[in-house]
Specification:
Layout (H helix, E strand, L loop, with lengths): L25 H4 L3 H25 L19 H4 L7 H19 L3 H22 L10 H18 L2 H14 L15 H18 L1 H12 L6
Helix pairs in contact: 2-4, 4-6, 5-6, 5-8, 6-7, 6-8
């Protein structure tokens, strides 16, 4: 895909390092990363519940703004679909994996986690728009869940990070069975959203590990001397 370019610099998503021996500002030390991650994913999840309340009060009009495949108007659904749900059962079923997987993704760094989420959001939505059934409406945060799941499973492989690989193994043991959801299944289930959310997660892991791959390549070349 066109966004997979060799010039992509994933290091821009790393936490900034103070220069000149300056100490981090008090605000940067006030909250540990795990707490920032928990607050962010918790706030996002609360927002989903607020949106569902508004949807119910509006006679379910909001949920009509999902991804409508190959419809020009349906392109707007790429932006809105992950925050819309069919009913309370749909939202409740997504809540726990959303909280856990979202938290783990953000633990690698807020900026990096948000970048991964953005890639999953766009790739998952666009893939659904291109391949979903005609006259259908695709909604739900499961596109993010499958994207985050795939991201956590493969990022350690791309980055050659033992810690991330171990996290991926634990995630697979707990949530690996969800991967069956990328295959056509029960009517009314957007397997296209699941599939392309996962594709977006793999793409995000590849793009955001570019700096680690570059460092490995430089180490493999070793120091070069010039005569």
């Amino acid at each position: 895909m066109w966004i997979m370019t060799s010039s992509f610099d994933s290091s821009r998503f790393d936490s900034p390092v103070p220069r000149g021996g300056a100490s981090p500002t008090p605000s940067s030390k006030s909250r540990p990363l795990w707490l920032q991650s928990a607050i962010l994913v918790g706030t996002f999840t609360m927002l989903l519940y607020v949106i569902e309340i508004v949807d119910v009060l509006s006679d379910e009009r909001l949920e009509q703004n999902g991804v409508e495949p190959r419809s020009i108007d349906g392109l707007w659904g790429i932006l809105f679909a992950p925050v819309l749900h069919d009913d309370w059962a749909h939202l409740v079923a997504n809540t726990v994996p959303l909280l856990i997987l979202g938290f783990l993704v953000l633990l690698s760094g807020i900026a990096r986690g948000l970048a991964a989420t953005g890639i999953v959001w766009v790739v998952g939505g666009l893939g659904t728009w291109l391949t979903g059934g005609s006259y259908s409406n695709h909604i739900g945060a499961s596109v993010l869940i499958f994207g985050w799941l795939a991201y956590l499973l493969v990022r350690g492989i791309f980055a050659r990070s033992l810690g991330q690989v171990l996290v991926g193994v634990v995630v697979f043991v707990v949530y690996g069975s969800l991967l069956w959801g990328v295959l056509p299944s029960a009517p009314g289930v957007s397997w296209q959203g699941h599939l392309f959310g996962a594709v977006g997660g793999v793409l995000a892991a590849w793009m955001l590990s570019a700096d680690a791959r570059k460092q490995r390549a430089q180490k493999a070349l070793g120091p070069q001397s010039f005569g």
